[in-house]
Structures are given as C-alpha cells and as structure tokens.
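User: Predict the complex with 3-methyl-2-oxobutanoic acid.
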Amino acid sequence: MSTTFTLDTSTSRATPVAAPMKRLTVPAVRRRKAEIARGEGAPLVMLTAYTVRTAQLLDPHCDLLLVGDSLGQVVYGLPSTVPVTLDMMAAHGAAVVRGSYHAVVVIDLPFGSYEGSPEQAFASAARLMKETGAAAVKMEGGAAMAPAIAFLSERGIPVMGHVGLTPQAVNMLGGYGARGRSRAEAAKIVDDAQAVARAGAFAIVVEGVVEPIAVTITQSVDCPTIGIGASAQCDGQVLVAEDMLGLFERVPRFVKRFDDLGGRIEAAAASYAAEVRARSFPGAEQVYAAKP
Ligand code: KIV
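Assistant: Here is the predicted structure with 3-methyl-2-oxobutanoic acid placed in the model:
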C-alpha cells in the first residue's frame, strides 16, 4: 500500500499536501476497550516512528504512532534510554506529527523529565505537546507515577502508562529480562497497572512480563492495554518498527521480523558501490544533457 498523500516536491520531499484521512482521537482509542469487549473492535495497532518518512509509511496502518525514547538506542546508538533528552524528543516528535494524518501520535517523556513531581511532569509534557503537536505523552512507572498521571489528565494532557519492564529503570532492574517471575513482583506489576488506570491513563503499555500478568491486567483495568513481550490477549500490540522490519541482527524473543530490511539495504548499498566502481552509475538517464 502506498502512503495516503502525495508529496509536494516543489517545496520539500517532507512536506505532504492535504490529507484525505481524519486523525483518530484519544477518546476513540480509549473506547476501543469496550468495543473489543463487545466483540466489535479490532486490537489497537501501534508502532514506533522517529522520522517523517517512516511516519508517512506506517501511519495508514496504525492506530497509534509512538515517538518512543527507544530512539536513543535506535537512532543515536546510545547504550540505554537514560541519556535521552526533551530536546531530542521534541525534534523527532515534530517530524512524526508532520508525517502522519491518521494515527494518534504519543510521545515518550524521557528519563528525568517527569519523575520529580506532577508539576515537573506537566511542564515537560506541555512543552512536548506545544512543540510537536502530539496528542498524548507516555510515562513509565506504576503507583509512584499515579499522582502525576492524574495531575496531567485533569489538566488536558492524555497520558499513556507503561508498566512491567520499564527500560528507563534499567539501572535499578539490572537488565532487560522479563519481569514478574516471582509472585511478589507479579502482584506489584498488577497493582501498578491498576493504580495507573485509576489515575486516568487512557491506555497502558505492558512490556516484558510473563503472560498471565498481562492477561490479569487486561481483564482488570478499564482502559486498553498495549502489549510488547506480553500477550496476544492485550487490547493492542506495539513493536519498535526497526525491530519488526528486520534492521537489527539481534531478534529478541518478543519480536517477529516482518521483513529483512537490513539485508535489503546492505544489498542495495553493495549494488550501488559496484556500479559506481564500474562507472556504470550514473548512466545516461541520470545525467543532464547540455541545451542544444
Ligand atoms: O520507547 C519505546 O519504543 C517504547 C516501546 C518499546 C513501548 O516505550
């Protein structure tokens, strides 16, 4: 399927002309929980996007696009999401909003920009929403973040929660393994999700947990759950787009590769290099003839 809009090449390749699709809304995403329960709604589809062109390609197929702080690792080669800044999120978030017309764009609050107080969370979230046009923010954490989620939700900022494996806490967790293997930890993750839902989150990402935890959370909260390394019974799924496109050699258990883009990019680069070295590129069709 092609993108849903044409590109205005007279201005910029990244400036699409008017959109034929109406953008989904946060309340519509929230309503999906009840629709699924009635057997009327399909699971929510979410992928990460960090750039305008990726957003253009993914948008027609997704209900939500997540400008994830995973961009720290995927785009910038950082060792974790901890060093990601509000400036980085703002720049990529604005690009993704410019490249999308259909999906709800959700943007991650990066580590250190919201945990201090509800007021700090509001200031960071308001900045990202003003500078990007995103419709919602996502914040990691459970019961400890409930006051901030309530504070933002009551002031017009929709919040997506994120429980289970919370990558910004990697230094506390000691790695990225699945969470909730002990009974106590499983109970804590379920409690966290319920606290986040009660605080007003419009959806919750459930990441890297043993499956029964994801099922229990999905059955016990009133907003949609979006799983990653969780369960097919969640109300939706999310993956990092670069993972599912096959751009990385390492394939974690929860990832399914839907393509081998890494292999195809390497093959294209090899063909280009061979043609340049053989002087067969550029050919006659790619050079400008002099005016007669
Ligand atoms: O940052 C991110 O990409 C995420 C998803 C993995 C849910 O938070």
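The chain has a mean pLDDT of 94.
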